Structure formats: structure tokens, C-alpha cells
Amino acid sequence: MFLFIHGFTSSSQSRKAQVLKKWLSDQGRKEEWLCPDLSIDPTEAMQQLSSIIEESAQQEGKPIKLVGSSLGGFYATILSARYGLKAVLINPAVTAGLTLRRGIGFHKAWHSEEQLEFTQAHVDALNEMTLLSPANPYRLFVMLERGDETLDWKTAAAFYQDCHQLVFCGGDHGFTRFDDVLEMIDRF
Fold first, then answer.
1. Burial class (CB in 10 A: 0-12, 13-18, 19+), 147
2. How far apart are the first and last CA of the chain?
3. Tens of pLDDT along 34-50?
4. Angle, nearest 10°, between helix axes 71-83 and 42-57?
5. Over the stretch 58-104, which tens digit does the pLDDT of each residue have?
6. Based on the structure, what is the number of domains in the chain?
7. Global model pTM greater than 0.90
8. From CA 113, how far away is CA 106, in angstroms rounded?
9. N or C end of the chain, less CB within 10 A?
10. Domain encompassing residue 148
11. In this structure, how many other beta carbons lie within 10 angstroms of the beta carbon of residue 134?
């Protein structure tokens, strides 16, 4: 089971979420894909994700593997530590509160016309969630593109230095090589 965790103001309609969904569906595994539309409120988003993980743990079957992009990578890092799950992090945010403090205000959702308000309270919640270092680094696989125009790939490479890493030259924050790494994500 894959729990795809989208980034800031994104949704289950994000390109990477849909590519993973199609890839699994093409293999007859469409039931292995989950991607909730998360609240912009970090506390609510983490509650949504925790509920999914805890409900899944009560059911028989394969354990959940987290796949988080950007802010979703930040959340996946925390959830991996909390629940002992493997996580693949795509251009993850390391200090999300620090990064997103300049984003206080209203934002149009990426895949709808909805206006989302991001507040200082949200920044504070992200700062409180920030880990000093990754727990159980062997459970984390970090994929970075050096051309990320939103987050500094070197910050993530240093923070996740003891984790599995794959770093590509070029690319961008959307992670242009996502289609090419699906089998590695599956095998991790």
C-alpha cells in the first residue's frame, strides 16, 4: 500500500500522485494507492494521515509505504519516525515552518479554485513538528534534483545524510524524473 502525501496547496490530482496511481493501476494494483486531499492546516493534515495509517494497521495486508513530495516529504519523515514505516521523500522540505513563513496569506489551490489561508499559527505548528534529525534513517529513501528552484537540495542532502539518497543533476521542484524512479520506489 502506498500513501502518497502531496505538497503545499496541492492535492490528490498532483502529477506525481496521478502517475503513481496509473503505474499501479497498469499493474493491476490500483487498490494499493491512497492520496488524501490534505488540509492546509498542518495539525489537521497530520491527523488525517495518522488516522489513515492507524486504520490500515488494523487491517491485514501489506504495510503502508509513504511517498511524500516537498511538504509531503516533511510529513512523511515525521510519520516514518512515529509509526516505523518506510518512506520515499521527493525533494522534501526539511524545515517547513522556516521555508513557508514567507507564504503566510491566501493561496489558490493548485487543482481547484479554492482559496486557502496559511497563517502564522500554521507556521508555528510546522516549527513544533520539525525533527532535529531523521529517526531510523535506513527506512528513508531521499530523491533530490539539484535544479529544485523552491528548496535547496543541499539542505536536504545534509539533513538526510545517513539515509538512502539518489541525487540527480538538473530537474526542478516537481521532480522531472519521477516516472523513471517508480520501480525503485516500489522495491524500496
1. middle
2. 13
3. 999 999 999 999 999 99
4. 40
5. 676 678 999 999 999 999 999 999 999 999 999 999 999 999 999 99
6. 1
7. yes
8. 12
9. C
10. 2-187
11. 22
Judge contact between 23 and 185, C-beta under 8 A.
no
CATH code for the domain in which residue 141 is found: 3.40.50.1820
Q: How far is CA 9 from the centre of its chain?
A: 12
* Residue-by-residue DSSP string for the chain: -EEEE--TT--TTSHHHHHHHHHHHHTT-GGGEE-----SSHHHHHHHHHHHHHHHHTSSSPPPEEEEETHHHHHHHHHHHHHT--EEEES--SSHHHHHGGG-EEEE-TTSS-EEEE-HHHHHHHHHH--SS-SSGGGEEEEEETT-SSS-HHHHHHHTTTSEEEEESS--TT-TTGGGGHHHHHH-
Cα–Cα distance, 5 to 24 (Å, whole number): 16
Residue found under cell 522556516: 98
- Edge-first strand order for the sheet with 164-168 is 33-34, 2-5, 65-69, 87-90, 140-145, 164-168
Q: Which amino acid is at 110?
A: W
